[in-house]
Amino acid sequence: MDIGLIGLGKMGGNMRTRLREGGHTVVGYDRNPDLSDVESLEELVGKLPSPKVVWVMVPAGDPTRETIKALGELLGEGDLVVDGGNSKWTDDQINADLLAQKGVGFVDCGVSGGVWGLKNGYALMCGGSDEDVAKVQPAFDTLKPEGESGFVHAGKKVGAGHFSKMVHNGIEYAIMQSYAEGWELLEKVDLVDNVTDVFDSWREGTVIRSWLLDLLVEALKQDTHLDKISGYAEDSGEGRWTVEAAIDNAVPMNVIAASLFARFVSRQDESPAMKAIAAMRNQFGGHAVRTQPPAGGDAPTKD
Question: Does the keyword Lipid metabolism apply (predicted)?
């Protein structure tokens, strides 16, 4: 099939390559002229036969909204836009309604696979009508991993794909937090001789084996105690959206919520909340508190 692809960064660029290797004709546009096949959105649209299919892979929020708005002025009846970025699912119906005014279809698609997607394929979760999904199905079939799994038409309502991907990322937060806490405990206790080998052994035969575990082992082999990495973890936004959706729907989400808040802790040089807890423990139980260490010495305690 012929397809336009907007946004040729780490994900989009590799997707263009995988699609071309699968026999599709791809016209790519990026604001970086070194990556782009064309000079403008107008040129991209002009090179596509009708009905035109354009896949958007730009940052969520305003960049995606502005790109879809611009495409709404360029596309026409029977054409289709796919939003494959990490957009919030509540944006999808707004974008679909905007495009529908011109008779342009809309499919939202959560994409997972990162920089490994070119080789291994991308997990795809899409939302939209059967008719609209069918228009881009050949691209889905090429982008997905080999085998029966890896692609799902999550729902006929737009937003179903991004909502599924959002929950996927919330689960990802929790799994990573569990591995991280286990690693810290193994490192802390002077008992295990080689923590990396322990994690490596879990990759076969255990109930906690996963691709995330494979990636952690690879990182530990490169830097055994992770001395070269700062203890700061960013969040992309989808963990927050998952917890917000849980609150809106009264769904208990203890573990995913805790893993999100743990990332916030990583951004504090010193936790103000922990200071307050230490002070209260000292007040009600006389428990020792730590003060700032003097130059060249250990931190003293204060009863």
Answer: no
Model confidence pLDDT, tens digit, residues 233-289: 888 789 999 999 999 999 999 999 999 999 888 888 877 777 777 777 777 877 666
Q: How far apart are the first and last CA of the chain?
A: 73
CA–CA separation, 261 and 37 (whole Å): 42
Contact in structure between 34 and 18 (CB atoms under 8 Å) = no
> Which of 142, 152, 136, 148 has the alpha carbon at shortest distance from 121?
142
- Which CATH number fits the domain that encloses residue 175? 1.10.1040.10
CB 268 within 8 A of CB 259: no
Amino acid identity, residue 74?
L
Catalytic residue among 52, 135, 165, 238: 165
Domain that holds residue 127: 2-156
C-alpha 260: how far from its chain's center?
A: 14
Domain containing residue 88: CATH number: 3.40.50.720
Q: How far, in Å, are 143, 152, 159, 247 from residue 120 at the CA level?
A: 9, 17, 26, 35
**Does residue 106 sit in the same domain as residue 234?**
no
Tell whether 56 and 176 lie within a shared domain.
no
Is residue 292 in some structural domain? no
What are 165-199's pLDDT values in tens digits? 999 999 999 999 999 999 999 999 999 999 999 99
Q: Is 10 a catalytic residue?
A: no
Q: How many domains does the chain have?
A: 2
**172 catalytic per annotation:** yes
Catalytic residue among 146, 172, 218, 228: 172
Pairing of the two strands 2-6 and 25-29: parallel
Asked whether residue 207 is domain-assigned, the answer is yes
